[in-house]
Design a protein that fits this description.
The structure holds two protein chains of two kinds. Chain A is an alpha+beta fold. In chain A, 36% of the residues lie in helices and 20% in strands. Chain A has a five-stranded mixed sheet, covered by helices on one side. Classes of the chains: A alpha+beta, B mainly alpha.
């Protein structure tokens, strides 16, 4: 596809969706190419054939023929664009819907860097190491303005918003180093908010995960320290049923709210309950928790949530007694 | 062969005092005021583009620093969108021609028309003021919370400029709608209106309905930035996506404000130089209205990767696809108008045919962006830049230049030099494609927009693009020179050098202040051209028009 190293017409295909996006792209290229050439040829041909000064006997077409023609060129583009729509929509649904078994990484974007946390504790800046052949899900949030996480070789991109988690996923298929860009203009050094994605064999990835510097603490440990530092533990401790809802094992459970609704305790709910606890108060508890809006960075919030998610369900002891 | 002599009294020489221009209520003089204004804004916006294209010759930021680069592309976007592309055709050609095509003496509200120009200039000077005060670095899209909280540049002043200029748009739109409804000459039924009028009518509807939304949106940004109201910044309890919805609710229809009038221009030029009636008049007329209506329901295609729900994305995708239908109808009908015509390739026709080709490519690449899975990859890359420049430069600017050449004899009473006209049309076409075609490739390769440094492998295509931009720049300067030259030295045009139909050609060039000696009565449909009559009549009419043609 390319003439020489360094000059290409198509980017590398390194994810499970890349060849399928390229196939759709090729279809659109063919349709567009056909119509562009057809219009161009028609104009040039008629400009020459019917050039002025040429002797002519040129009756106009009958009006009935015109109707048929007009209907034809209304229906034809409609049909073609509907094919594009369905093909694009089906693939988009897949691109936006992560598989259940994906590895989940946490991404924080800020002016002008990417910070990424791996589940086993290793974190990295402006680099992303992933295994090939396994779906990887990124849960992303921004500390400041809107960014956009973009890996051209994977054909995936998603905006990274302040105040709200967004997710994207991909499955790398080919080991190698690929560009990582910020695609949404985010201020002065936007151009340099970039880095590399390293797709590795599973064995290499496992080795890489082990290779963290000795003093590195896991997200959970760091979260646990913050949990203490911000005095969360004074209310949310093991025997806290009276003052606060128990946190152990709460993740992904359905929670009844004071106003009668039910809510799933996912990342977004946990985050909201820290920054703005009054929004969705758990049934049976007083709305007494102070709001942490503006006191915690998104990175700290993320670590605390990782800590909460890591707490073992209070299975045996709590339920049996 | 008689050489027509210039008419004695006309709207240009009726009064030479400076005051007579600044206080004029003549739609034609106001059009001239706008022409000078938008040309100056075009030069400012173009100069910024020249600088950042120079910077992008190399992967490293070696000509300007990042802050300057960001201010340059913002300046380019703000000035070109709000002060050239949106106003250019409606306020110059529309102002001049709409009353004449209807057979009217002026617009319905002549003083309001003058007020529009003053409001426009106020907005423009505020925007220029924001540059002099140090510039703005948000991009023309003003995305929050960057614009409302984080940027340390003159956002308020630039937003105020766009806000103020919006009122000028609303008033012009209102004026056009009322004029079209109430001031048509006897016999000028709706289906005898030139498509130029239909296009401006559709454009005016968008201006009147859409512009207030951008005004409110910019006001909300100002409230958040100046007074700390929490509307868009989540730290203040706001929602940044709300801004994108509001912004694109106007700014997507605004794309059609830019391109619909150009379609109107092309629809006047093609039948005239094909000596043929317009193919499918009714379909072309309703296609303009269909585009105006659909344009209000597609804004969400700017948010496919912004965190909008998957299902909202699908709805906006299918609605966006529908725009292709009326657009395709227009392209096919223009092309079919050549069929069994008598085609001559004078400068306006070269621009019009160039428009058809470039708009076709621009429109088709729009389908890539409406296709969800492809947009995920190319969103916010150079693919988008290429696509909308094919529409806005390949479409609107080509249409504007074609229209300026076509009606130049009417506006000034003089003929421009045809050889130079064709030369520069060719240079612009080549320069344009060399500038923007490589950007499609760059975008699919993954180069993000709005970057002042990029990875080395993108350099070849960027150099091609910058080289094209320099050709394009020269192409734009040539008409500026020869059009000014022709004001004094161009051959006298006579009332109708192109032998065109349309009421504007049935009066002297330049027209008198009140356009027509007596109110014209319309008895025929528009575009009643006959392929047999062109060449002979034209030579009788105007030796100037065939000067330089080698046939």
């Amino acid at each position: 596809m390319y003439m020489e190293e360094g000059f290409r017409l198509f980017p590398e295909q390194a994810s499970s969706v890349a060849p399928r996006v390229d196939a759709l792209y090729t279809f659109l290229l063919c349709v567009s190419g056909f119509f562009t050439v057809a219009i161009f040829v028609a104009i040039v041909y008629m400009a020459i054939k019917y050039r002025h000064g040429r002797p002519k006997d040129r009756p106009h077409p009958e009006p009935e023929q015109l109707w048929m023609l007009e209907i034809a060129w209304i229906v034809m583009p409609l049909a073609l664009t509907m094919v594009m729509f369905f093909w694009g929509a089906v693939l988009y649904f897949e691109i936006r819907t992560p598989p259940e078994d994906a590895i989940e990484l946490q991404v924080v974007g800020k002016q002008w860097m990417w910070k990424i946390y791996h589940p086993q504790g290793r974190s990295e800046i402006n680099e992303l190491h992933v295994p090939v052949g396994r779906p990887v899900r990124l849960r992303m949030i921004s500390e400041d303005v809107i960014h956009s996480f973009y890996v051209p070789a994977f054909r995936v991109k998603m905006d990274v918003l302040p105040g709200r988690y967004t997710t994207m996923w991909f499955e790398a298929t080919k080991p190698g180093e690929y560009h990582l860009f910020c695609a949404e203009y985010c201020g002065t050094e936007h151009a340099n908010m970039s880095g590399s994605v390293y797709a590795m064999t599973p064995a290499e990835y496992a080795e890489w995960l082990q290779g963290a510097p000795a003093e590195t603490e896991t997200a959970q440990t760091a979260g646990s320290k913050l949990f203490t530092q911000f005095r969360c533990h004074t209310c949310h401790h093991d025997d806290s049923e009276l003052r606060s809802p128990p946190l152990a094992g709460i993740f992904d459970k359905s929670i009844p709210l004071a106003d009668g609704r039910m809510v799933r305790a996912d990342d977004s709910y946990l985050r909201e309950s820290i920054v703005n606890p009054m929004a969705k108060v758990t049934a049976g508890f007083q709305p007494v928790m102070p709001a942490y809006q503006g006191q915690l960075t998104e990175e700290q919030l993320l670590l605390i949530i990782e800590y909460i998610k890591s707490l073992p369900p209070r299975g045996a002891r709590g339920d049996a007694s | 062969m008689t050489n027509p002599s210039a008419p004695g009294r006309n709207y240009l020489n009726v009064d030479y005092r400076f005051r007579s221009w600044l206080w004029t209520t003549d739609h034609k003089r106001i059009a001239i005021l706008y022409m000078i204004s938008v040309t100056l804004f075009f030069l400012v916006g173009g100069a910024a583009a020249v600088l950042f294209r120079l910077e992008l010759m190399t992967p490293r930021g070696d000509l300007v620093i990042a802050e300057t680069f960001n201010k340059l592309f913002t300046l380019h976007g703000v000035v070109m969108v709000f002060f050239f592309l949106i106003p250019a055709i409606p306020t110059v050609l529309g102002n001049f021609l709409l009353p004449m095509m209807l057979g009217a003496r002026d617009l319905a509200f002549p003083r309001l028309n003058l007020a529009s120009w003053y409001i426009f200039m106020t907005g423009g000077l505020l925007a220029i003021g924001s540059i002099i005060a140090g510039g703005v670095d948000t991009g023309w899209t003003f995305y929050t919370p960057y614009s409302s909280t984080y940027s340390n540049t003159n956002v308020m002043l630039a937003a105020l400029g766009a806000f103020v200029a919006g009122f000028s748009s609303i008033l012009t739109g209102l004026n056009f709608i009322v004029t079209t409804h109430t001031m048509r000459a006897p016999g000028m039924t709706w289906f005898r209106l030139p498509i130029f009028v239909w296009s401006h009518y559709a454009t005016s509807i968008i201006m009147v309905l859409g512009t207030p939304v951008i005004a409110i949106t910019l006001l909300l940004v100002a409230l958040e930035r100046g007074l700390g109201f929490g509307i868009f910044d989540p730290k203040l309890g706001g929602d940044p996506i709300l801004f994108q919805h509001l912004f694109w609710f106007y700014s997507h229809p605004a794309v059609y404000i830019m391109v619909l009038p150009a379609m109107g221009v092309v629809t006047e030029i093609v039948p005239c130089f094909a000596r043929n009636r317009l193919f499918g008049y009714t379909f072309v007329a309703f296609a303009s209205l269909a585009i105006a209506v659909i344009s209000f329901f597609v804004w969400g295609h700017h948010l496919f990767v912004s965190g909008q729900s998957i299902y909202a994305g699908m709805i906006f995708s299918v609605l966006s696809m529908l725009v292709a239908v009326p657009s395709a109808v227009k392209v096919f009908n223009w092309t079919a108008t050549l069929y069994r015509g008598s085609v001559s390739l004078d400068t306006p026709m070269l621009y019009a045919l160039g428009f058809i080709g470039l708009f076709t490519l621009g429109g088709l690449t729009g389908l890539f962006l409406a296709t969800l899975a492809i947009d995920v990859h190319v969103h916010d890359t150079y693919f988008i830049i290429a696509h909308f420049h094919y529409i806005m430069v390949g479409g609107t600017v080509m249409g504007y230049l074609g229209g300026i050449h076509f009606w130049w004899p009417k506006i000034t009473g003089r003929i421009y030099p045809e050889w130079w006209g064709r030369l520069s049309a060719g240079i612009i076409f080549i320069g344009f494609n060399l500038t923007f075609f490589p950007q499609f490739v760059l975008g699919y390769l993954g180069m993000p927009r709005r970057v002042h440094e990029y990875v080395d492998e993108f350099q070849v295509l960027n150099v091609m693009s910058s080289a094209g931009a320099s050709i394009l720049g020269v192409g734009y300067l040539i008409p500026l020179a020869y059009l000014i030259w022709s004001l004094r030295y161009g051959p006298v045009a006579g009332p109708n050098p192109w032998r065109a139909t349309g009421l504007e050609w049935q009066t002297q060039s330049p027209p008198t202040t009140f356009n027509f000696e007596t109110t014209p009565v319309v008895t025929e449909p528009p575009y009643h051209y006959d392929p047999g009559d062109f060449q002979m009549e034209r030579i009788e009419q105007s030796p100037g028009a065939v000067q330089g043609t080698a046939r």
